[in-house]
Amino acid sequence: MERKCKICEKTLRGRVDKVFCSVGCKNHYHKNVRYASKTAAIEINGFLKRNYAILWELLGTNKTQVKVYRNTMEKKKFRFKYHTHFHINSKNKMFHYVYDLAWMEFSDDEILIVRKQ
Fold first, then answer.
1. β pairing state of 101-105 and 85-88
2. Is 49 helix (H, G, I), strand (E, B) or coil?
3. Which branch of life, at top level (predicted)?
């Protein structure tokens, strides 16, 4: 079976585990991989920052928790699928975190926003 370079499709000669025909093709491949992962990370980090700012704005500086309606967060373009981690408490309720701020959905309409103690 003939092996081909991952970038330029030239026939490979030499080691059995060789993937690229030259250093140039290898560098081209890894440069594109780094660029793609960096671009994705920048986009996701932007969503996380935006979510954090929305949670912080709704919670304020003096409160540790506040209840808001889901559409309030949606109007501010909050992206519910972007969060840093989650926690399930003893009552089996899931808190979605963005760094030190979290939200928990009570019903379809109400959301509790809390600051991690």
1. unpaired
2. helix
3. Bacteria
Residue 53 resides in a domain: yes
What total of structural domains would you count in the chain? 1
Higher pLDDT, 117 or 113: 113
What does the pLDDT look like over 12-56, one tens digit per residue? 998 999 999 999 999 999 999 999 889 989 999 999 999 999 999
Q: Residue 108 in contact with residue 70, Cβ under 8 Å?
A: yes
The residue range of the domain holding 111 is 47-115
69 located within any domain: yes
